[in-house]
Amino acid sequence: MRKSLDASVFFIMFFICAIWGSQQVAIKMVEQYVSPMLQLSLRSGLSALIVFILFNRRDGITLHLKTPGVAFSGLCTGLLFALEFFMVALGIPKTSTGHITLFLYTAPLFTAVGLHFLVRDERMTRLQWSGIIVAFAGIAVAVQFSFADRSATAGDLFALAAGLSWGISSIIIRTSQLSTLPPACTLFYQLTITSLMLALAACFTHETRVILNAAVLLSLAYQTIIVSVISYLCWFTLLRYYHVSSLGTLILLTPVMGIAAGAVSLGETLQSSFLTGSVLILSGLMLTRLGRENHRLRESPTSYTGK
């Protein structure tokens, strides 16, 4: 039986969103010592090791690879996960962390559109389509396709491509055998492949510089332990006991936290066009969530009462 959201969940979700929103800031603060590409590779590898140690015996991470379709689906989602963070690594030096976080979290838009055509139960309502249109209009406003600052525009497009990769990987998880596995299994497959692929990419692009100091060690510890392990474990635990749709709505706090973290920690300026686009994107995401919730309530009036 799923529980209704209470004050403690809002408190936990606030900190989860703050952690997820600030991770790009942690990367950018030490990029002069360790390249973003190598940071993401190291944190993914260390996180995969921790997840394996903690959950392999309980969840059978390696045993599930023998299940038909799991290995191939795991490989596909892992490669898309790696592509997502490859795009993030390319975008971070070119644009602000607020832009990276906002465009990264457009992933639910791409997932919603893809699932509409692939899964009958995921067909979108008119309200949801309205949300999609509003959100994509916001993307156009926020990116501002001009050549005034080609580097920033390129960074925004890299972040948007990362969101697309994340969205497609969510579609594969939803429509494959991975949807039946414990979350730790899918997370391990994604982290492992991402670590390997980004390590290769770092070598290929000569982004292998490492200057160890206290700031680098603290940043990597934060990204590995706090972001990639503790926050995800809290998230997966909440998913077991509370309604996914309600938690998904609260996740919309993450881009807001990311924009605020960049402005406070790095002194990033917030252009009026970006703020306008941000409002449109978040409004569109909210409409998409609300449209899905209303559709399910009409189909099953008691399905979200917690009884």
TrEMBL record:
Pfam families: EamA. Keywords: Cell membrane, Membrane, Plasmid, Transmembrane, Transmembrane helix. It is a multi-pass membrane protein. It comes from the Bacteria. The chain crosses the membrane at residues 7-27, 33-55, 67-92, 98-119, 131-148, 154-173, 185-204, 210-235, 247-266, 272-290. GO terms for cellular component: plasma membrane. It is found in: Cell membrane. This is Threonine/homoserine exporter RhtA. The lineage of its organism: Bacteria, Pseudomonadati, Pseudomonadota, Gammaproteobacteria, Enterobacterales. Residues 11-142, 154-288 form the EamA domain. It comes from Pantoea piersonii. Belongs to the drug/metabolite transporter (DMT) superfamily. 10 TMS drug/metabolite exporter (DME) (TC 2.A.7.3) family. Its main location: membrane. PANTHER family: INNER MEMBRANE TRANSPORTER (PTHR32322), S-ADENOSYLMETHIONINE_S-ADENOSYLHOMOCYSTEINE TRANSPORTER (PTHR32322:SF18).
